[in-house]
Sequence to fold (714 residues):
Amino acid sequence: MSLVKIFEIALKTGRVTRRYPVEEPLITPEFRGSIEVDPTKCWGCGACVKICPPNALTLTPSGKGLILEYFVGRCIFCGMCAEVCPAKAITVTKKFELASANLRDLRFRVVHKVLRCSICGAPIAAEAEVRAVVKASPTSEEYALLCPKCRKEKFSKSVGLRVGASSGRSS
Amino acid sequence: MTDPVLKVVEELKGLGGVVEEIKDREVYLVVDRDRLKSLAKALYSAGAYLKTCAGVDERQVQGVLSIYYMFGLDELGTDVILRVPVAEEDAKIPTIVPEVPAADWCELEARDMVGIEIVGRPVRRLVLPEDWPEGVHPLRKDFNYSTRPPRGFKSEASEEVGVPLGPYHPALHEPEYFELYVEGEKVVDVAYRGFHVHRGIEKLAESPRFTYKQVPFLAERICGICGFVHSSCYVMAVEKAAGIEVPERAEFIRSIVLEVERLHSHLLWLGVAAHLLGYDAGFMHAWRIREHTMVLAEYLTGSRKTYGINIIGGVRKDLNVDKLDKTLKTLATVREEFVKLAEVVLSVPQIRSRASGTGVLSRSEARALSVVGPVARASGLYRDVRKDYPYFAYKEVSFRVPLYTEGDNLARLLVRVEEVLESIEIIKQLVDKLPGGPIAVESWDVPPYRRAVAAIEAPRGEDVHFIITGVGKPYRWRVRAPTYQNIPALRAMLRGAPLADVPLTIASIDPCFSCTDRVVVYDVRTGGRRVLRISEGVSPCPL
Fold:
């Protein structure tokens, strides 16, 4: 009879529910929770912002600088940001107890100092990003510190000079 | 392209179809709207099922509005797609519902979303709400995603307002609305009003911030139970359209995870079915066993649900020895416990008697409505995408497709019970044969304006994604979830049924709308009306 059989199964199985939160939660080593951004490593380049499917990461210029904000409330815990981060500044943690009565607890910010063009003063990019670019490629620093417009002008002027000089020599 | 397919194509050419493109398993024909009916009829009588149809605003590329009718010649494993273009000023297409009853919903959806008038049938709004303005069609390209047209609530003439207030059951039930017309206890007719939670996902994917890379994560959120099916189907459509060769290992990993998802989905359903029959002990044990598969899914992918491992060209997470070992151990446990439970559940006399002979869907009705998945297989239709259009690693494994001819609730239950065991065997074979190599292609490129239809066997049946590629993102992405195909069959199942069999029958298609457990009951003799909870009238425990 089925009633007896189900009792047999139930008795043999016993209690399966964990006494969470008194006991450890049931998560596996592969679990993906919220992310952490290391402000000392972050460049402020925005690669994570571009890939983030739900817009949980945003990069906004403000009076204080360039602000990278991580809003846990929108995060889908896919971890794509950590995969694309060129600075390896993002780690996927196992944190999942994220509820809070205060919305501000769900926002994490990294404020980046903005580098301004050494000629015209227009904002270029986060200082950390420019530093990383200069370090990674042998671009001469004086070009890296210019905004795209001034960089173009400076470049065409110097090319013009060089072309002029070489054509002068050949004639 | 095989000979039988060429024969069908020749016949369609004779009827006025012009071949646009022939691919390995897809044939695209363009058809004049006046000849559509005869082609649709010829295809349906050649054994094709209607997968779905999709309205597309192609004014930017072809200067026309179109409807794509996707037919599947299951036995030949080939899709035949009819494109019917019409000028914007004269956007009218004759209905094919008399020839192909399964086209009922998708025709109405194309009318709502793209604004192509369907001629020769009664029309009503299907997807758009009543207070949406006339002449505004969200899937037209000139309709911006962030536009919010003014909405005015139209008050109905009646002074009396029925306020449906129901329990919220986040597990399986979602916002659904059935109007049952009854004579005494007998259901005479059924009207369905759905799409309360239409989220405009197809339009969202067209919004500026979405690219090919982000849509898999959006697709995964179409369904909370078979999300991986949707992300797999989307990436498969893009890969087919762009001709991206996915590494074999990635295909195996996708297939393994798809089957793990089927296990948890069927176990979930079995629990809910037991619960609806008042057998809560069965519900608890089914979900206890399901928990093993949930933990396994998290260990394999990183998340219990919305696994997030599908990317175009492969997967993000590899399997190692520990994971494969854990998979086999979990499967052994699940199998042992499931066999015991299934034996108990199926021997409960009340379950047998309430499920057998109720909610019958005949083979011919199932065929006419092109139903999919366990619903089709319980009504004697041998349909399984894994066999008919082998994708990913399914051609590497052998398995049986459970088939029943009774078409009742018990048959649908038995199909799912047997499929659990088949899934376990499939995963074992896949683990055994898992090849080495990379899990994703290094780089890929999607050329614009390529088309592809992809289909995957979800736990609920065939899931279809149709894609027209664009620049950096899909130009048009059409999703047809399995329940879309199966809900219209409920009308056939419920007509003539006693009221008490309604909850189980609705649940027997394993519906996947977000739902609030309520139906309105109209008494056709008195004109009275009352709102009923879906679990009402179910005794707490039949034992």
Summary: The radius of gyration of chain A is 27 Å. The domain at 28-113 of chain A is CATH 3.30.70.3270 (Alpha-Beta Plaits). The longest strand of chain A covers residues 65-71. Chain A touches chain B at residues 2-3, 5-6, 9-10, 13, 16, 26-32, 51, 53-55, 76-80, 83 (CB under 8 Å).
